[in-house]
Amino acid sequence: MAAEATWRAMGSDVHVVVVGEPELLLGARRRVGELEHRWSRFLPGSEVSRMNAHAGDPVVVSRDTRVLVERALDGWRLTGGLFDPTVLGDVIRAGYDRSFELLEQDAGPGASTMRRGAADVTVDPHGLVWFPRGVGFDPGGVGKGLAADLLTEELLDAGAAGALVNVGGDLRVAGESPTGLGWCIDVEGPLDPAPIARVGLRDGGVATSSRVRRRWKNDGVARHHLIDPRTGAPSATDAPAVTVVAAEAWQAEVLAKAAFVAGAKAGLDLVASLGAAALTVRADGSTWTTEAGGVRFDAAA
pTM value? Predict the structure, then answer.
């Protein structure tokens, strides 16, 4: 028996498919809401907002938020800093200072005194997180993928034979598919929702980073949300979109963003060096791929 549901959360569409009892979808919806209320930087009462408001002091957080920060720091180390969860000040300066659904076409000049400092973040195993004063944490580059991972694992623990969880395009699959033949994932192009490739998976995560979907104008200048930590500005990459397939969705999300920032060739080299697979769309519309771990990007039917 398979059931599915779609709803809005975390500023995105959430799509969940379970091979199991339909009632599991109710728990999935509650769980995503719980994670959003803990992790959203746009909710003043969230744990992430408390961490940012009290930078310089240790803050007690839930296990979910401790894992979020740990995975974000893992991603920073994994990519040599090309993914940096402490770019919040740069994101705000670019004009992304509210939920994208509320962002006006011209956001006006952003302002922030926040600096970066992932190397100095401390996570205590007992639930304390400490950010240096003036450093802000942005969960946007890892949170949706991690939410997909957590929810998929919890659905299997609750009795599902298989599950697919897609949070805003960051996706995790595990276990039995509705057809019993594995999960078939479409990779959409940056300008057209029609699939440009397909990937077959038994267990793994898929994520895409693109400068096309989340765009706005700040003081009359076109901006996007993918910050290059080396410059503090929206990345001027030659790769409009990068899709990564990795063991887990949080890894795929982190690597997709790092590969996007690095550029088409360097991004593929980075992903390949870490044993993951990637498809990069170049500015002229052509695609490059690197395949690993039995993952193959097939042409879309």
Answer: 0.86
Question: Contact, 247 vs 254, CB < 8 A?
Answer: no
The sign of the dihedral angle between the CA atoms of 106, 13, 181, 247 is positive
Q: Are 258 and 82 in contact (CB under 8 A)?
A: yes
- The predicted-structure confidence for 67-94, as pLDDT tens digits, reads as follows 999 999 999 999 999 999 988 756 556 4
> Roughly how many angstroms between the first and final C-alpha of the chain, as a whole number?
27
